[in-house]
Amino acid sequence: MAGVKKSVTYLLIVALFGIIIYQNPFCCTSVYSQETELKYIKQLGMKGIEKGRFTSPHSLAVDNLGNIYVGDTGNKRIQKFSPNGTFLTSWGSEGTGDGQFLGLHDVTVDPEGKFVYTVELKNHRVQKFDPKGTFITKWGFNGTGDRDFMRAPHQIAVNSLGKVFLTDSNGNQILKFYDNGTFIGTLGSKGVGPGQFNTPHGIAIDANDNIYVTDMKNYRVQVFDSKDTFVRQWGSLGTGSGQFSETVPGIAIDSNNRVYVVDKINSRVQLFDNTGNYLSSWGSDGKGAQQLHKPEDIAVNDEGEDIYITDTRNSRVQILQVIE
Predict the structure, then answer these.
(1) Contact, 153 vs 147, CB < 8 A?
(2) Tag placement on the chain: N or C end, fewer CB within 10 Å?
(3) pLDDT tens-digit readout, 36-74
């Protein structure tokens, strides 16, 4: 009889555990071995002002068709490439007018590939374009109101409903907008506790609208669900696996829920599953073919096959793949 009771208890525990896993959208969606590797494939571009070349590229994004958009900050323009790296078009020049840039800091594309959004530090604004670079609208300026970005708008992301999320680094919060620039609200406040920030910088949104933020001076990644509720965090200051330097600018999530984080001062990219378990890293400081020097941003194509990194100080984009 005692053996029967133990068996029943065991089955109940297994069943309950299964229900918890099924109901938790973050649990067990990505399990990979510690042997997961990031493999160098090739580089895109080099230093210069010609088409297809870059001067301090700071940001990049990949649309649903695999086209690559690079924020060529030093040349004050966006450059667009096909999935195989062929130059397609570019737009932008230095200035404060529509379609011009000062302090071009980030570029992103909405999940359906309909709109391209840019963020400018010096113009304190977001600009919205179609995929060919035609200007649509803009919003934001340097101030303290709801639609203002204070002094430091950094990165931008768009969820499946078309809502726009912007990291306001000096305000230690995330600003939320509809895609026409109408202000919705904020997420977070200054501090070290869960859901608080000390210089938030990078932001990415997965297919379930969960929000991932690099909380730079708290040396961590924070995760929120689609209702802005804090879920988890990971990271600390250091050079070890799963640790970050004082500057953690870029973050991306692939279709397999793997999380890529740019560890700028450590000149590397770290790979995690979506619960924060460390999987792999790639990069070392330098100017060689397979090195990084102060990288800034990262993006992944929809298939999760190709990973793109802005190797900013080397004025190029490096392309990697996941090998398991």
Answers:
(1) no
(2) N
(3) 888 999 999 999 999 999 999 999 999 999 999 999 999
